[in-house]
Amino acid sequence: MMRSDGRKPNQLRKLTFRRRYTRQPAGSVLVHMGRTTVLCTCSVERTVPAFLVGTGKGWLTAEYAMLPGSTSPRKARDRTGKIDGRSVEIQRLIGRSLRAVVNLEKLGERTLYIDCDVLEADGGTRTAAINGAYVALVDALHAAKKEIGSPSLIVRDSVAAVSVGLLEGAEVLDLDYCEDKDVDVDLNLVMTGSGQFIEVQGAGEEATFSREQLDRLVKLGQSGIASITDQQRRTLGRNWLVG
């Protein structure tokens, strides 16, 4: 099948990471997956939630937002206490994904704040946010290593995410918005660089799918994760923490 942007079914959109995009947070990355653009930052604070005070254990939490100009028509800005359900779901996913590879016991009583702000949305904002957030996290830990110790003791593995779907009967990788809105089955996959699953989110859109199709979708997603992980590794260079 021919995709709207000319990609092959198993081809990722162009993926780039621009590190140190802003200077205030310890880690900052502008990630592009095709036209989807997300600013991901990581800040290190000497504070933890009340339930962790005195335990010596740290925490990681994430916030996600789509800026009003990221979509057309304009998306209303989230107000305090009125975050939409989709944003809550995605920021929880980002937090879970990164906590899966962070040794919070080694962090001490500190919190890693991950902030992901979508500047332009063209499908796959949650997967782009996870991919950029991991790079921002690693840079933040390196920036704070005099305070927190070796980042390699804190990060156990890498993490990356990608979307796959069934479109016109074909399995396709890394959906853009035009594909995402028409897809029969939509699946988001989050995995470690070593090949372990963190989360699989999948559903039929007025459609069903077989076990065989699910297996093919997961295999396609795994190949995409491997490519994204390789790009993260090349982006971080000597700051890469895992084997």
Task: Please give a handful of descriptors for the protein shown.
243 residues; alpha+beta; Ribosomal Protein S5, domain 2; five-stranded mixed sheet; four-stranded antiparallel sheet; 5 helices; 9 strands; globular
Q: What topology emerges from the helices and strands here?
A:
Elements: E1 15-19, E2 27-33, E3 36-45, E4 59-66, H1 85-99, E5 111-120, H2 125-143, H3 145-148, E6 159-167, E7 170-173, H4 177-182, E8 185-192, E9 197-204, H5 211-236
Parallel strand pairs: 4-5
Antiparallel strand pairs: 1-2, 2-3, 3-5, 6-7, 6-8, 8-9
Helix pairs in contact: 1-2, 2-5
Question: Can you give a write-up of this model?
Answer:
With 243 residues, the protein is of the alpha+beta class. It has a single domain (15-238), classed as Ribosomal Protein S5, domain 2, CATH 3.30.230. 29% of the residues lie in helices and 28% in strands. The protein has 5 helices and 9 strands; from the N terminus they run E-E-E-E-H-E-H-H-E-E-H-E-E-H. It has helices spanning 85-99, 125-143, 145-148, 177-182, 211-236, and strands spanning 15-19, 27-33, 36-45, 59-66, 111-120, 159-167, 170-173, 185-192, 197-204. The strands form 2 sheets. It has a 5-stranded mixed sheet with strand order 1-2-3-5-4. Strands 7-6-8-9 form a 4-stranded antiparallel sheet, sandwiched between helices. A hairpin with a 7-residue loop joins strand 1 (15-19) and strand 2 (27-33). Helix 2 packs parallel to helix 5 (211-236). The model has no long low-confidence stretch (mean pLDDT 94).
